[in-house]
Structure formats: C-alpha cells, structure tokens
C-alpha cells in the first residue's frame, strides 16, 4: 500500500521534521514569482506603478512575462528596495557573479 509524504514526515523524529519544514520553506521562498514577491512585501500593483512612474497595466504585463530584459527585472526589484544578482554556474568552475548586465540607468520598465 502506498504511503503519503505526510505520513513519511510524521514518522520522522521531531528534529528531522523541523529540518524538513525549514528547508521546504527556504525552497518555496526561492521560487516566488514577481507577483508573489510584490504581495509578500505588501505592495499593490498601483503602488509599484507609482514607484516606477508607469501605469498599473504595465506592472500586470511585467508580472506575467516569462521572458524580459535584465534591465526591466533590475528596475522592478530596485523599486521594491531589492537588488538583482546574476550568478553563472559552469561545470568545472565555481559560481561567477556577473556584473554590469542590465545597468541602463533609466529606471524605467521596458
């Protein structure tokens, strides 16, 4: 008979359960969408639009995009008070932080 993941976790010692829960929360935080990130910061689309001096409809479009310019993503994150770091990972080498990509300085979403 199949066993659910919840049952497996409940069968672990309390310390192990806590570690599993903590790690799952870390992973969930790593994979937020832009919309979820904005909502986590208690920002509305209207507030983001004001921060970026653009229309709310443009915020909606940005949040739905699967592909965008790095400068657009950087501007969006900076408007929330965040930063964007790009890390390249290549087999046989350590992580490399890429600098200067998307630094247009316009502060506008495209």
Number of domains: 2
Order of strands in the sheet with most strands: 1-2
Strand percent estimate: 5-15%
Amino- and carboxy-terminal Cα gap: 54 Å
The number of helical elements comes to 6
Quantity of strands, as a count: 2
- Percent helix range: 40-55%
Low-confidence parts, pLDDT < 50 over ≥5 residues? none
Reading the helices and strands in chain order gives: HHHHHHEE
CATH topology of the largest domain, by name, is 434 Repressor (Amino-terminal Domain)
Shape: extended
Q: Mind describing the biggest β-sheet?
A: 2 strands, antiparallel
Second CATH tier, the architecture of the largest domain: Orthogonal Bundle
In round numbers, the mean pLDDT is: 87
CATH class of the largest domain: Mainly Alpha
What does the radius of gyration come to? 19 Å
Description:
The structure is a single chain. This protein has a two-stranded antiparallel sheet. The chain has 6 helices and 2 strands, in the order H-H-H-H-H-H-E-E. Strand 1 and strand 2 form a beta hairpin. Helix 4 crosses helix 5. The protein has 110 residues and is mostly helical. The protein folds into 2 domains: 31 residues; 78 residues, 434 Repressor (Amino-terminal Domain).
Q: Could you write a compact summary of the structure shown?
A:
By secondary structure, the chain is mainly alpha-helical. It contains six helices and two strands; from the N terminus they run ααααααββ.
């Amino acid at each position: 008979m199949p066993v659910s993941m919840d049952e497996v976790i409940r069968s672990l010692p309390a310390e192990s359960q806590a570690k599993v829960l903590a790690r799952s929360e870390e992973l969930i935080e790593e994979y937020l969408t832009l919309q979820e990130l904005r909502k986590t910061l208690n920002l509305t689309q209207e507030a983001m639009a004001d921060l970026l001096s653009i229309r709310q409809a443009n915020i909606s479009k940005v949040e739905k995009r699967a592909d965008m310019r790095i400068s657009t993503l950087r501007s969006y994150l900076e408007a929330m008070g965040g930063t964007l770091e790009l890390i390249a990972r290549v087999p046989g080498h350590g992580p490399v932080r890429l600098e200067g990509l998307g630094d247009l300085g316009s502060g506008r979403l495209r």
